[in-house]
Amino acid sequence: MACQLLLSRMPASVAESKIQPETEPIMNKTATTAHPILPLLAERWSPRAFTAAKIDATALGSLFEAVRWAPSASNLQPWGFVHAAHGSAGFAAIVGSLAAGNVTWAQHAPLLVVGVAELTKADGSPNLYGRYDLGQSVAHLSIQAAALGLHLHQMAGFDSAKLREAVSLPLSHEPVVVIAIGALGEASQLPAPLDERERAPRSRKPLDSFVFTDTWPAGRP
Ligand SMILES: Cc1cc2nc3c(=O)[nH]c(=O)nc-3n(C[C@H](O)[C@H](O)[C@H](O)COP(=O)(O)O)c2cc1C
């Protein structure tokens, strides 16, 4: 099936799944790592500028198949997703639930995905790992997206009640995240100051601030 990702750096089809872009990315924000990690992990980052190229059914299938094979507590798979393509009524409804700062750029993404967690087990007890498992499934999705030459940007900045209404979500499920997905666009298409933020270097805490041997350091919060 022909892929609708029209960037010249993309392979002709994600169905052929490629898995590496053929030319250099528009903007390289690859992590400077203290130790070697998988290239896809280092290259993944969260842009706000996407091209208008649509995500076709083949790519969508791969993204959610990657989710499907994520591990989860007791294999409950307590995740759910609603996706809406740019231009659809569903897309507009999701945008309407986003915080203003996210609307600015997310309204131009080719695809928005709502990630939901089922927080109650079949026996009525709480599933304390529902959000954890959803997050891990989105990590799968993000790496599959990177392998397809796509980027995603997760958002917690939304009005939960509006989002629930926008996607007709039952009370048994909680909207946890909205994810913009697309091919990387140009920072220059963003309004200031987002264009500068798009170009800013990525930063992380050092390993020794969160990885400890044997015991948690005394007195450390
Ligand atoms: C659960 C979650 C919620 C986030 N919410 C927002 C958001 O509402 N708006 C936004 O611009 N970025 C949001 N982000 C993106 C983070 O700011 C971003 O992942 C972080 O700064 C690290 O940047 P990187 O993904 O490019 O490495 C969110 C990320 C996650 C995982």
Order of helices and strands: HHEHHEHEHEH
> What hetero molecules are in the model?
flavin mononucleotide
Low-confidence stretches: 1-22
CATH superfamily of the domain at 46-199: NADH Oxidase
CATH class of the domain at 46-199: Alpha Beta
Global morphology = globular
How much helicity do the residues have?
Answer: 25-40%
Mean pLDDT: 90
How far apart the termini lie comes to 53 Å
Structure description:
The structure is a single chain. The protein has 221 residues and is of the alpha+beta class. The chain has a domain at 46-199: NADH Oxidase (3-Layer(aba) Sandwich). Helix content is 28%, strand content 14%. It is built from seven helices and four strands, in the order ααβααβαβαβα. It has a four-stranded antiparallel beta sheet with strand order 1-2-4-3, with helices on both faces. It is globular. Residues 1-22 have low confidence and may be disordered. The structure holds flavin mononucleotide. Flavin mononucleotide is lined by residues 45-46, 102, 154-157, 177, 202.
List keywords for this structure.
221 residues; alpha+beta; four-stranded antiparallel sheet; 14% strand; globular; binds flavin mononucleotide
Summarize, please.
It is built from 7 helices and 4 strands, in the order ααβααβαβαβα. The chain is an alpha+beta fold and 221 residues long.
Summarize the SSE layout with pairings.
Elements: H1 39-43, H2 57-68, E1 79-85, H3 89-95, H4 100-106, E2 111-118, H5 130-147, E3 151-155, H6 160-166, E4 173-182, H7 194-199
Antiparallel strand pairs: 1-2, 2-4, 3-4
